[in-house]
Amino acid sequence: MRTNLAFALGWAAVVLRFAGEWMFPGDGPFALLVAQAALLAAGVAFLWRSLGSIFLRGGNHAAGIREGLLALPIGLLLGAVTAYAASGALDWLSPDRLAAPLVGNLLFTAIEEVEFRGFLLALLLRLGLRPSTAVGAQALIHTLAHGGRVLGGYYISLLVTLVMTLWFGSITLRSRSLWGAWIAHLSWNMAIVLPQAGAGLG
């Protein structure tokens, strides 16, 4: 009963994220993010004795984190190339402007990973989907949850999101740990924004 309720709360958070992104393309109300976090926290609390069911405990965390850290150099390279192509120069984000995006990404990526690679991926597996199908489905759902990008026609960005979320799901499934996907997601977001924001593009 507690497990079913926990997954219902996790699924509700995913639905809320999806609805919020499509109703408020871009930056939605902060209250929506708080509501998602509250639903996920309640779901995690109900699963406290079996957190392994959403990949928060018992997996090979070290292996996942090692792979996740690969996102940092890849993201830095892509971000630098994008910034240079747009402005003809690199101007990295200064340390005094780093705190806000870092704190925001710590929170936001944690919420997304618990939503999509935690509850959603685990639920799809519990429903009997093959592992590869479940990874593909969660990546597609996560990509389509970016309503602003879909409506704005940012198809390259959506393709990158699809590829990255496939990788995040693969890390989670192979390591049975959410920590590697979170590190990869956080590293990617921060690495891609550092040179672009410094160039006035972020």
How would you sum up this structure, described in words?
Helices cover 76% and strands 0% of the residues. The chain is built from 9 helices and no strands. Helix 1 (2-23) crosses helix 5 and helix 5 packs antiparallel against helix 9 (178-198). The chain is globular. The mean pLDDT is 89.
Keywords:
single chain, 202 residues, mainly alpha, 9 helices
List the helices and strands and how they pair.
Elements lengths: L1 H22 L6 H17 L14 H8 L2 H17 L11 H28 L4 H14 L2 H6 L2 H21 L2 H21 L4
- Helix and strand element order: HHHHHHHHH
Number of domains: 1
Instruction: Let me know the average pLDDT.
Output: 89
Quaternary status of these chains?
single chain
Range of helix content: over 70%
Radius of gyration: 17 Å
Distance between the termini: 45 Å
Q: Which runs of at least 5 residues are low in confidence (pLDDT < 50)?
A: none
Measured by DSSP, the beta-strand proportion falls in under 5%
* Class inferred from helices and paired strands: mainly alpha
Characterize the main sheet.
Answer: none
Number of helices: 9
What is the number of E strands?
0
Could you say which overall geometry the principal axes of the C-alpha atoms support? globular
